[in-house]
Design goal:
It is a single chain. This protein is an alpha+beta fold. Helix content is 56%, strand content 12%. It has a 5-stranded mixed sheet with strand order 8-9-10-12-11, with helices on both faces. A 4-stranded antiparallel sheet has the order 1-4-5-6. The chain has a 3-stranded antiparallel sheet with strand order 3-2-7, with helices on one face. Strand 8 and strand 9 form a beta hairpin. Helix 2 packs antiparallel against helix 3, helix 5 runs antiparallel to helix 7 and helix 9 packs antiparallel against helix 10. The protein starts with a helix and ends with a helix.
């Protein structure tokens, strides 16, 4: 207990009673390092600096209190500010293509509603524009709810044994859940409604992302089945049925059953560190109250900050996981990766990772440069085997990394290659996906001979679609050197 108290009061060095005088700095991001740890968190919101060396960060989910020494304020024009300026410009131009380009930019930056509203702006300029007319037809599909089919709910309940679970529907999803019906203080929605809103956002963003590149996918004609467990133990019970280990994941998609499953909690190291600190703070707070210790008010404020950070981290983890698995679900139901086709791990995980939202407790757009993903790519970039294009395309990465006990490097490589191909060689990538989708699913045990034959087939298809592999790898490396995370980009702007 004394050790815990000592740690707490070391952490409390950074916080003092707020003085009346203060100065506000508007910022999009705050980089916070938890004292005494290597833990860094990137937060959105404005910051107020106070006399005495403290600061208040106003996050959309509440106020956090920090020492000014423990945060780095990264000033930058907000996405909304950039959008407003560019909107004025495109309105003056009266050019449909420029409006559509801004709409695409909004989609990539997590501003889905603005992206859709710009389609209406473009329509008023020229309703005969060919691409715009196709987009309008897609939006009619997206805006309409699919018919309710009792068999969809029955299938989800039968598979998970969820007779006592609640059902909540949105336009395109059926969510089976046992989440609390309490409304969130910030959004005014229940956990189930928040998850469905996120799923619908990913759904619309997915179709529009392809449409802006000239590929108009047909939406499913039935609601997609999703299960949300409120308890991790219930989620892990599925492990026995599936015969694999799910202890390191917060969600998964089952193509044979065509159903996605999640549990409502954080799984990252950030979350674990914060939870451990929260336990210590609860003990220290009770002792401080009981003994009327000096600085008890600061301790309580710090405890509330940690509680809010836990809430933000949990929500961030959920957003990241749900957006990733939703893409697996959507690609399987829109013909991009047929459910009865071969499962090429880097292809599927690369696509899901490309659409995966950054961990900022909200949907952050498409093609986000994630710190973890690009970090693993950079570590392996110079590795002559694990970093090579041939190794990734052959799909050996996930096999090797699984043997080594950590698949995150393979995810990083799959994300990096997909990011490049999606942005720079989209048409060729679609041809590659189509040919890979025609490969038959492997039945039975994967022997070494089968793996080698499969790898050779993947390389042949890849070369057929993309041409000179050496030249492509050089282009890929140059492209990756130009990518920056939000933190890196903002830091460069401050220099």
């Amino acid at each position: 207990m004394r050790r815990a108290l000592f740690l707490i009061f070391l952490l409390l060095v950074f916080t003092t009673l707020f003085a009346l005088a203060s100065q506000t700095a508007v910022a999009d991001y705050t980089l916070y390092r938890l004292p005494g740890t290597e833990l860094q968190l990137l937060l959105e919101g404005s910051v107020t600096h106070h006399a005495g060396g403290t600061a208040t960060h106003r996050h959309p989910r509440g106020s956090l209190h920090f020492s000014a020494h423990d945060i780095q304020v990264l000033k930058s024009p907000s996405a909304q500010t950039i959008y407003s300026r560019r909107l004025r410009e495109v309105r003056k131009s009266n050019d449909v293509d420029e409006v559509l380009e801004l709409s695409k930019w909004c989609l990539q930056n997590g501003m889905l509603e603005q992206s859709k509203s710009l389609l209406s702006v473009a329509w008023k300029i020229d309703s005969t524009h060919e691409q715009l007319r196709k987009l309008a037809g897609l939006m009619r599909y997206i805006n309409a709810s699919v018919p309710t089919d009792p068999a969809v709910e029955e299938h989800a309940r039968d598979y998970v044994g969820g007779r006592a679970m609640e059902v909540t529907r949105s336009k395109h999803f059926l969510l089976l859940h046992d989440a609390e019906q309490k409304e969130d203080e910030v959004t005014g929605k229940t956990r189930a409604e928040m998850r469905l809103n996120l799923l619908e956002t990913v759904y619309e963003s997915y179709f529009l992302t392809f449409a802006f590149r000239g590929v108009f996918l047909r939406p499913p004609n039935k609601r997609l089945e999703v299960v949300l467990f409120s308890r991790h133990g219930d989620f892990l019970q599925m492990e026995r049925r599936l015969g694999g280990s799910l202890k390191q994941t917060a969600g998964f998609y089952l193509p044979d059953e065509n159903i996605s499953m999640f549990y409502d909690s954080g799984t990252s190291e950030h979350f674990k560190v914060l939870m451990e600190l929260d336990k210590q703070l609860v003990q220290a707070r009770e002792i401080a109250k009981k003994n009327r210790m000096a600085g008890a008010g600061d301790l309580i404020r710090f405890a509330k900050t940690i509680e809010l950070l836990i809430d933000i981290t949990r929500e961030s983890e959920d957003v990241s996981t749900v957006s990733h698995e939703a893409i697996h679900h959507l690609t399987a139901n829109t013909g991009v990766f047929p459910r009865d086709g071969a499962f090429v791990r880097w292809v599927h995980e690369g696509m899901a990772s490309y659409f995966e939202s950054a961990k900022l407790a909200k949907w952050s757009g498409v093609g986000v440069v994630d710190k973890t993903r690009i970090g693993y790519y950079r570590v392996l970039e110079g590795d002559p085997l694990r970093g090579s294009l041939e190794f990734i395309v052959s799909d050996f990465g996930f096999v090797l990394e699984s043997t080594l006990g950590n698949q995150l490097p393979a995810y990083g490589q799959a994300w990096a290659l997909t990011h490049f191909l999606f942005d720079q060689r989209f048409d060729s990538l679609m041809k590659f996906y189509k040919k890979v989708g025609q490969l038959k699913k492997q039945e039975g045990e994967m022997t070494e001979e089968i793996w080698k034959a499969r790898a050779n087939t993947l390389l042949e298809i890849f070369d057929e679609c993309f041409g000179d592999r050496t030249q492509l790898e050089l282009e890929w490396r140059r492209y990756m050197r130009g990518l920056r995370t939000d933190t890196e980009r903002l830091a460069e702007e401050m220099d």
